[in-house]
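On to my pick:
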Amino acid sequence: QVQLVESGGGLVQPGGSLRLSCAASGFTFGDYWMYWVRQVPGKGLEWVSSISPGGSTYNQDFVKGRFTISRDNAKNTLYLRMNSLNSEDTAVYYCAKDRKQFTRSDTYSLGQGTQVTVSS
């Protein structure tokens, strides 16, 4: 059974930093593209970053230079380091696993999410 458990969210001041983690189990973590997506209340899911099984990374323009996605295949863990946070980054952040092995299909299975709130 696939499990994706996010942690590390919380309340942070504008300009601050957080590191999100996602503990994965129930599948061969190193075989899958992984993603971070987010959702603001009242809006749809928004792709943030993705990382290939080999570690190649891709980011939305609005997070380039601020967010860094990484993975530790030995620990079955996905990370998102977020710097220079602003109020527009306030959202529920979800760890996501591609539904296809080895391939980027941009179809996901999501974790339960972790709330990130950027406010003074």
